[in-house]
C-alpha cells in the first residue's frame, strides 16, 4: 500500500451547509483536485477541519469523499482524535468505507509519554488492515514525536508504514532517512519547506495549495523528480508567497476564502474559526490575481 502514496497529496476543505457537510460542494472540490492531476486525496486533515466535526459528520465526509474519488486515486483519511477509542473507531470506519490509508496524529491535553504514543498507534494498527501515516505536527496536536520514536514504531508496529513530518525542520526528515536506512518514506507537511524537503528525498508533499494553484504544485514536484532544480527553484519562488500566506492565516480559513474567490462556494470555516477578514481577502485576491 505504501508504494501507492507519492507525489502531491491534495487536502480538500470540508464545506458546511445548514450546520452539516455540504457533500455536493465537497464533490466539486475533490473533482477539481483529481482533474488537476494530484496523486492522492486526503480528506479530514487540518484543512478539512477534522477537529471540529461530530462523529456523524466525520462518517458523512468519509463516505462523500470516497464516493467522489470513485477509485481514481488513493485516499488517505485523517482519523485523529483526543482519545484512542474514537481514533480507532474512525480508522475502522474509514478502512471499511474504502480508504487506502489513514493518518494519525496523537492529540492530547496531557503530555504523552513515548510508551503511551506507541500504545495508541498499536491500537489503531490492531484495528485495521490498511497503512497508517504517523503524522507529526506538534503545532496543532501538542505532541512532538522524535525521528527515533517514529522509526521505532515503523519497525515494531505492522501498519505504521509512512510519516508525515510537519515541523518544518529538515534535519528531522534527514534523521528519519538515516535511522531507517531509507526504508521509511516521509512526506513533507510544511508548505514553505517543500522544495528543500523534496530535494532531501521526501516521497511527496501533503498540501492544501492545489485547491488554489494546482499546476505549479504539480510542476514543482515533477521538476524535482526530474532533477531540474533551476526550474523547481523558479516554481517555488512563484508559489512561496501563497504558501506562506495560507499557512500564516490558517489553512481552512484561507483556502476556503480562496475557493470563494475562484468561484467555488466553499463557505466559512466552523467557529471558533472565522472567515478571512477584508484585508486578508484583498491580499489573497492579489496572490491569485494572475489566475
Q: How would you sum up this structure, described in words?
A:
With 291 residues, the chain is an alpha/beta fold. It has a single domain, classed as TIM Barrel (Alpha-Beta Barrel), CATH 3.20.20.70. It is built from 12 helices and 10 strands. The strands form 2 sheets. Strands 4-1-10-9-8-7-6-5 form an 8-stranded parallel beta sheet. It is globular. The relative contact order is 0.13. It comes from Mycolicibacter sinensis (strain JDM601) (Mycobacterium sinense). Belongs to the DapA family. This is Dihydrodipicolinate synthase family protein. Keywords: Lyase. GO terms for molecular function: N-acetylneuraminate lyase activity.
Broad structural category: alpha/beta
Strand portion = 5-15%
CATH homologous superfamily annotation: Aldolase class I
Mean pLDDT, rounded to whole units?
96
Distance between the termini: 36 Å
Which overall shape is indicated by the principal axes computed on the Cα atoms?
A: globular
What helical percentage do the residues reach?
A: 40-55%
Strand tally is 10
Count of distinct structural domains: 1
Helix segment count?
A: 12
Low-confidence stretches: none
Going across the major beta sheet, what is the strand order?
A: 4-1-10-9-8-7-6-5
What is the fold-level CATH name, i.e. the topology? TIM Barrel
CATH architecture, please?
Alpha-Beta Barrel
Biggest β-sheet, characterized?
A: 8 strands, parallel
CATH class designation: Alpha Beta
GO molecular function: N-acetylneuraminate lyase activity
GO biological process, one term: N-acetylneuraminate catabolic process
InterPro entries: Aldolase_TIM, DapA-like
Family: Belongs to the DapA family.
